[in-house]
Design brief:
The protein has 5 helices and 2 strands, in the order αααααββ. By secondary structure, it is an all-alpha fold. The protein is globular and about 45 Å long.
Length: about 150
């Protein structure tokens, strides 16, 4: 069941983001990576495990840095971070003892991350989103071009 829910929710969020135009902004998928990575920290706080919180914070920081690098340079880094977080989900219990993680979470999050990564890759390959920050110039009402 966690796999089915992860699949449906990831597709729902990604298709919704495309439909309303959220993913036209380069920040959408990087922010998604950061929020996803923060959830393990939330589980550590819920379990009152300081050790788990420190370890989860290190992992979260690594994914946040990948999201920032991807936002500033190329969104393929963000797709890789999403996929990498899915791999992290599959190995999480072996890497970090976090008693706050629900038993179903790794399967759900692995599926969500993998589907979101695949969807972003599809959007990048199809040209729906430009991968490179250099190719994504925004023109402000003042007429100035702003590059992220």
């Amino acid at each position: 069941m966690p796999y089915i829910v992860g699949l449906i929710l990831a597709l729902g969020v990604c298709v919704f983001a495309t439909g309303v135009g959220f993913d036209r902004d380069r920040a959408f998928y990087p922010v998604l990576v950061i929020v996803i990575a923060c959830l393990y920290c939330l589980f550590a706080v819920m379990s009152a495990s300081t050790r788990a919180l420190w370890l989860e914070s290190v992992a979260m920081t690594a994914f946040a840095l990948a999201a920032i690098v991807g936002f500033r340079s190329n969104l393929w880094w963000v797709a890789a971070a999403l996929l990498g977080h899915g791999v992290f989900d599959s190995l999480h219990a072996r890497l970090i003892a976090d008693p706050g993680v629900p038993p179903w979470w790794p399967a759900f999050c692995l599926t969500y991350d993998g589907v979101a990564a695949a969807y972003l890759a599809w959007r990048l390959r199809s040209g729906g989103i430009r991968a490179s920050a250099r190719d994504h110039a925004a023109v402000h009402p003042s007429g100035n071009v702003n590059r992220p």
